[in-house]
Structures are given as structure tokens and as C-alpha cells.
Amino acid sequence: MNIDLLYKIESVAELQGHEERTWHVSWNPTKPLLASCSADKSVRLYAYSELTESCDPKFSHITSIPTGHSKTVRALAWAPSGKTFATASFDSNIGIWEQEATSDYEGDDVSGGEWECASLLEGHETECKSVAYSSSGTLLASCSRDKTVWVWEVHPDSDFECMGVLMDHTQDVKCVAWHPTEEILASASYDDSIKLYIDDPSDDWFCFTTLTGHTSTVWSICFAPSGNYLVSGSDDCTVRIWKRVSEHQWECVSVLEGHERSVYSVSWGVGKGDVEGGLGWVASTGSDGRINVWELSESSDMSANAPPKNKLIARISSAHGVNDVNTVVWCPRPGYEEFLATGGDDATAKVWKVVKA
Amino acid sequence: MAFSGALTLTDLNDFITPSQACIKPVEQVKPQEVAKEPGGASTEIQIDSSGSYYEVSVNGLPQNKTNGIGAKKLEQAQISLNDCLACSGCITSAESVLITLQSHTEVLNFLESNPDVSSPSHKVPVLSIAPQCLASLAASISSSSSTPITLHRVYCRVQAFCSQVLGFEHIYDTTFARHIALLEHAQEFQERRAGGGKLPMLASACPGWICYAEKAHAEMLPFIARTKSPQQIIGTLVKEWLGEKWGKKPNEIYHVSVMPCYDKKLEASRQDFHNEIYSTRDVDCVITTGELELMMREKGWDLSVPVQDELESLPRGPAGSVFPELMNHPGTSSGSYLQSLIDMHTSTSPDTLDLSVRTVRSSDYEEYTLKKRESGEVVFKGAKCYGFRNLQNVVRKVGREAGKGYDYVEVMACPGGCVNGGVEGEMQNAKWGDKEWTKRVEEAYWHNLPTPPASPNLSAETRMANEADRAKSRRQRLFRTQYKAVESEVIGLAVKW
Predict the structure, then answer these.
(1) Distance, in angstroms, between A277 CA and closest chain B CA?
(2) What end-to-end distance do the CA atoms of chain B give, in Å?
(3) In angstroms, rounded to a whole number, what is the distance separating the alpha carbons of residues B481 and B225?
(4) Looking at residue B263, which CATH number applies to its domain?
(5) Which CATH number do you get for residue A346?
(6) Of B448, B389, B449, the residue nearest A163 (C-alpha)
(7) How far is A320 from A21, CA to CA, in rounded Å?
(8) Domain span holding position B267
(9) CA distance A59 to chain B (A)
(10) Of the candidates B362, B392, B400, which has its C-beta nearest A162's C-beta?
(11) Least confidently predicted of A353-357, B72-76, B135-139, B459-463
(12) Across the A/B interface, how many CB contacts are shorter than 8 Å?
């Protein structure tokens, strides 16, 4: 159900097949592929037809990967190359998945060989909650209920080297996210804080700042495409916008209200807006089953900590019926800026399009 | 539970730290149950200003008649070192709940209650100190004086304090025990290379690493050297060899070691180092450098003041120790394990060998390769790997390519190795992991040490091997140990989310 706003959110596809709740979805950054993961320990891959002027993409299920994880697959992330993805499981391991080369492999064909586990990253003591590749694809970050954030360097032949074990959080770490261009890592935790890390080239990874303000668990974080902002979603029902006011300093500049219950997921895409100084679109979702889309744009005030302008441009309620919505993700591929995917407790994954009302 | 200030560790990266709250159920010996009043359902727990817990009945009636205020003081939970070792609930270095069992107060209490020499129940108090501790003390007093002070001088002063003030009858440093550990280590490496075990061999001297491997990476255990650490070898030497010389049974000796690391307390309390027959441990109590310094402060001893007959360096007089003292082993300040194997290869190889060192990212991860100069053939590849992060990479590498890759890895849990063993920083109120401080200790460690006798050389090696043939089982009993995986007993539901 949409409310009267500038844009509306239209359903494009409803993808069924998981046997238990869908925890996370991830768009392949280079190919027309969407992946979802679930408490049923499997990953499902969907291919879609390219968008044409007259026709929305059509989604079709191409494969299910049983993963071999012994517990829930909580999150997954594609590498920037689109050739590899990583899974984070409650069995405390990170899986690295690659497609077997086949003899009739045709370039970017989305089908091709079987997906197999090329590497298993052990080290976390308890449930892994999130995993993310850096923009260059050379680093991988993971986090866990064991309160740690790990940084791995990606080596050739699916080898990984641990570069850092960051023990700064005092509670369960829910989410990790990388800056879109620089090697800055962010993590969000049950300790209500967000921490940002960088690498000291002569030394180790370290936390250079802690962002506080949320009054409950921070479930999700995402950098803006410009890299100058960060969005977070929390159990305190708010979405916060954090701005980079100097190189290593980030401040909360806006608190967006619009959810009645916990915000489980946020995503910041480039959007299809036409406002001046546009910063893209922020989507949020959570326990109230609602998807909100805000348009963000630079303020005319040029001071460093001036908040960006924000405007709620679209909303849909009961996106997955009465169920919680666990994740929302903008499609990162050029030409698909208005497409969103969500995953919910109803075991489905859904694809949406944000269009002018 | 209140922890001592030194143990409240925050903002630390790359050390193994407690990752979750203690889940060990605490057992209490309950006094006789007070009969419940019919219908009088519950009591509540109140906390007084001192932090003690009291159980009081809700209607205010006393639960226990023995105390006038109508409240029963509840016992405080006690968790022993052995509970920690047997539990996989948390993986930690410096398991801070257990320090009271092995503390300097414990040592002072013992010394106070130890009957006079004439009494048959008198125990011989013996103290052994690690060279890293001496380095730390040297760095500590050198920082307040202009001239650097040698380990020998510090050792003389520590000896004077421990014998004159505390009443220890024998004081040793652990370098001779390390010498034996290095010989045994080299021996074990050759046994493994000859097919008697798995390679790469991983160092066994760091108890933080051993504890972590037993709890989290049982698959690593076959790779870990079974040679005892210097602390446990000095334990064996004191209780078995010296004890015999003195005509004392193991339980007639009280052996204290001073170590740079809290985890040495865990190591000393392992079941394997407990003598069932005499119900005594090879090392009865482990204290840290900081605790030794605290004792000196409490007794008003100033370590910066020279003592009589203090010598700059060896040799000491004929009245010196039964062991060679302050032996230097070139290599690392964490025991020179890798270097001793490199030296063994270079001294025994008929070919000329060239050593190349490659730093992998930082000085905490370095690869050492020995190649034949003529053919370029690799005869030995080792690494030193310090800190939790590098330790992860060792585990991955060994798991992936067992048998290939490295022949030996010197693994230590702390970044920087033993001169940064967790307790060293507290000496100067420096933050644990302070690199400047670690550097100073490292310098003090190597300052003005005589070189000979160096690492186990060929002749010693051969002697040892011959001796080994004659008394292999005895040697193995004395100088080797074993490890066992700790099965996880953590149930998800029992854990605080």
C-alpha cells in the first residue's frame, strides 16, 4: 500500500523457494544476477532479463546452492568483480564461492558451471552476522557475535590472509560496510555504536572513531555513493545520517523518523532523482514491514556540518505481508538505479521499482 | 567481580582477549537449607555498599537466625585455574578471574607460614626468574638513570632482595632451562623430520597459544612441539634433579617462578605438571614481573640501588649457581626457538647455507629460508609469527598445506613476543602493548650480554643425541608434555546474548 508521495514503489518480482526466512539479498555488480540467503542454509541465484524501455526485467531461478554451512546463512556479499561471493553463517564461518569453469563457458553468461566453496574462513568464535568486500575487491571484512571484526586480504587462488582482528566493540557486531572508494571500514553493533577503521600502513588496522547517538542496537550501515555520508538503521526506530566533516571526523547530522519499529536494513543508492545537489536515495526497512525511500540532497548551507536536505519520496507498507523485512538493497548496476530487492520473514525475496507517482 | 587494575584491559588489538562472559557454573557448598515458610515464597537479593550480596526474605523475616540483621551474606563465586583450563566457554589470554590463586600475596603468605628450617615440615623456597622479566626491570630502572644497567646487575639485586628480604634459599634464572628446552626442541624437530611426527613443528613455549589451540584449533595440536617450556623445565629441574641433590621430596620444595606473562599461571596449573604421588606442582606459584615489583615496593626495596658484590657481567665466583647463569641465545627475545633450529642446520650441513629473511608486512611475521649456496636447494623454511592476527594466518597456512610450506614456526600469542607479554607494560603504567616500552625492554634484553655459550651447537646436539639413546624415556618424561583438545560445552542458549 503506497501513500501519497512523489514516487511510488511497484512490485517487479516475487521470488519464492527458500524454506525459511530470507535474511539477506545481494545484487551482482556486473551481471544480471540476484542472490538471496536464508535460515534454510541455502543460497538461491536468480537471473534477470535486461531492462528494456517497454519491459521490466523478468527474474528466473537458476540455481540453489546448499552451501554446506551447518547453520543459517545470515548474509552474503558479491565481490566487485561479480565472479565471487562470500557467505556469513551462524556456524561461525565465512564461505567463499566461485563458479567452476566449464568448457562451454561463454564470457558473461550467467549460467555456466556449478558454484563451489573455494575457501572457508575460520576464526570467528560464534555466529557471523555480516560480510563485505572493499571497493577494490582486495579486502574482505566479517563480523560476529564474538564482538570482533576481522579484515582479510584477498590473495590469488582463493587464499586469504588475516590482516586484522578488531576487538573494539563491547557487544555483538551486526553489520560491516566499506567506503565506496577508500579503504575505510565501518561496523555497527549491539553496543549501540558505529565504529570506523583504517589501516595504518606501518602497523595494523585500528578504530579511528566511534559514532554514538543511536539509543539501541545499530542493525545496519551503508556509505553514500559519494563517500561523504553514512546511513545507519537502528532498533531505536530511527535512521541516522552521518557526515564526514573532516578527513577522520564523522558527525550525526540528521535523524530520519518514519518507522514504528526496529529498522533492520538501510541502503544508499545513486537514485534516479533530478533535484539539484542530489546525493541519491536512501531506502530503509524493518520490523514494521515498511519500505521508506528518502531523497537526499546537499544543503545550500556550505558549513562542514550542515545537514543534507531530506525528503520522504516513497513508502510502501506491508511489503512482505505481516512479516518483518530483514533487508533492503539498491541495485548497483548502471541503468537499474530505481530497482530495490528485499528479503523477509515470509521466506521470499522481492524486487521493487521506484517510479514517479 | 572486581579485577585488579592491571587486568582491566581495554582498547587492545591483536592480543587474545576474553570474548564472552564466563559461563562456568559456580558450585557452592550449601549450608543446611532453611525450611521455607509455607506460602512464604521468595527471598530477594540485596547488595550493600561494599558490594556484598545478601539474601533477605521479602516479608523482612530473618532467613538465618545466626545474624541479627535478618539477612544472610551470600558466598562469592570462586573459579579456579583448573576450571578455566577445562572450559571452552571463553578463549582468553590472561584469564583474569583466576589471579588470586597465584599471586604475590599467596607467595608472602606461604613464606610467612613456612616453619623454620629445623622443622620437618619446612619447605625449601626456590625462585626462578625469566630473562624477559629481568629485561623489563632493567628497562624500568634504566629509564630513571642515565647509564643503562645490565641484566646481571639487575639479577644480582633481585637475588639479594629475594634471599635477604623474602628468605628464598635458592634463586635461579630460567636461561639454563631454556638451553635444555632448545636442545630438546632441536632433538624433537629431527625426530619429526625423520618421520616421527608432523611438520611443520610449531613452538610450544607460549601458553596463550597452547590454550587457544586446545580450545579452538584442535587440528593444530599434532603440529605443536611436545617439548616443555623453560618454565616447566626449570620446574622439573628444581623438583626432581635439585630436590634429589638436596635430599628433598618434590612436596618439600616451594617453587615460585617470575614470568613476563599471566598465561604462565595457567601453564603451571596444567594437570600434566602436577605430581600425583606428592600432590605438588613443578611450579607451585607463578607471579608476574609487576607482582615482583609490587613486593619490592611493599618491602621498601629500591632496585636502582646497587648491592654488595654486584658484578657487571659473568663470571660469577665459585660460590655461584649450580646452573650456568644468564645464558644468551641469539635470535629473538621470545626464546630464540627458530634461531636455534637455523643454527642447528647451518652447523651440521656439509654444504654452505645462505639464510634469507623476508618480512611479511611487519616484524611480527618474518620468513626465514635456508638454501644451499651451490644448488639453491631449500633445506629449511621457518617463520616467526607473533600476535593473534598472524597466529590466524599460521593456523590457516598449516591447515591448508600441511607438510609443504614451513618446517617450523615460532608462534607467540602477543604482538612483539615475550618482551610484550601482557604484564610488562604495567611496570611503567604504560599501556599494555605500548611499542616504545616494548622496544626499551627489547634493548635491555640484549644489552651487554656475553655471547657464549651460544645456541645448542653441534657437539651439544650430538651429546644430547647419545644421551638420548641411553635414556630416551627418562628424557621424554622429564622434558616433554602433551596437549588435549577442549571440547566445547557452550550451549548457545546459555550464553548471554
Answers:
(1) 40
(2) 20
(3) 9
(4) 3.40.50.1780
(5) 2.130.10.10
(6) B389
(7) 11
(8) 83-181+228-329+425-479
(9) 38
(10) B392
(11) B459-463
(12) 49
Q: Which residues of B touch A172 (CB under 8 A)?
A: 497
- Number of domains within chain A: 1
Confidence class of residue B327 from pLDDT cuts 50, 70 and 90? confident
Whether B63 is in a domain gets the answer: no
Which of B19, B220, B400, B493 to probe by mutation at the A interface, max A CB count within 10 Å?
B19
Q: Name the grid cell of A309.
A: 536536505
| Chain A residues with beta carbon closer than 8 angstroms to that of B9 | none
Closest-CA residue to A204 (of B435, B439, B383, B361):
B361
Q: Please check whether residue B143 is in contact with residue B440, taking contact to mean a CB–CB distance below 8 angstroms.
A: yes
Question: Is the pTM above the cut of 0.80?
Answer: no
- On whether the CB atoms of residues B412 and B203 are closer than 8 A, the answer is yes
Rounded to an integer, what distance in angstroms lies between the CA atom of residue B234 and that of residue B274? 14
* Residue A199 touches partner B, C-beta closer than 8 Å: no
Q: Is B393 on the interface with A (CB under 8 A)?
A: yes
Does the interface ipTM go beyond 0.85? Answer: no
Does the distance separating the beta carbons of B11 and A125 come in below 8 Å?
Answer: no
Residue A107 in any domain: the answer is no
Q: Which of A125, A165, A206 sits opposite B388 (nearest CB)?
A: A165
Q: Judge residue A1's burial from the number of C-beta atoms within 10 Å of its C-beta, 0-12 exposed, 13-18 middle, 19 or more buried.
A: exposed
pLDDT tens-digit map of B229-286: 999 999 999 999 999 999 999 999 999 999 988 888 888 988 888 888 888 999 999 9
Assigned domain for B492 exists? no
A211 grid coordinates: 559514532
Which amino acid, B119? S
Does B363 touch chain A if contact means CB atoms closer than 8 Å? no
Total domains present in chain B: 1
Enumerate the β-bridge partners of residue B410: B384
- Write out pLDDT tens, residues A150-171: 999 999 888 899 999 999 999 9
The answer to whether position B324 is within a domain reads: yes
Best of A204, A207, A210, A235 to disrupt the B interface (most B CBs within 10 Å) is A204
